[in-house]
Amino acid sequence: MLHKDYLLEVIEQFVSTVSQALVRALLQRDFEAAEEVEAAVADLVQLDPDTAMALAPQSLVTMMMLSGTGDSVAGYAAYALNRLGDAYDDMGDHDLAQLRREQASAIADSFGADLDEIPQEFAELESQL
Description:
By secondary structure, the chain is mostly helical. The chain has helices at 2-27, 31-44, 49-54, 57-67, 70-91, 94-111, 123-128. The protein contains seven helices and no strands. α1 runs parallel beside α5 (70-91), α2 packs antiparallel against α5 and α4 packs across α6 (94-111). The longest helix has 26 residues, at 2-27.
């Protein structure tokens, strides 16, 4: 029960942080906000931000599997990385956009998440965007 409560708290904080940062990244083309999303994703999967975001898609999945939290957070991480791809495309960094989408896709494929399905916790964010 404590693990579940802790995980719910972590996800709640992640959603709050990512929602605020994605609004700025997508609507204002704020590169620093995009980096905040990356840091939040890395924290969620228990990795150093610089390391996590530099990993090839399958390597990121492997690290998530090793951390033991992948199953619980995959849909959230995949959603955030996929939307981050949109932000980087809008900012003109198409290579980074492609990497983030590939990371999102690898996470979704490996953990059974659906990139077309928006996590319920992000429904309000989607309505803002």
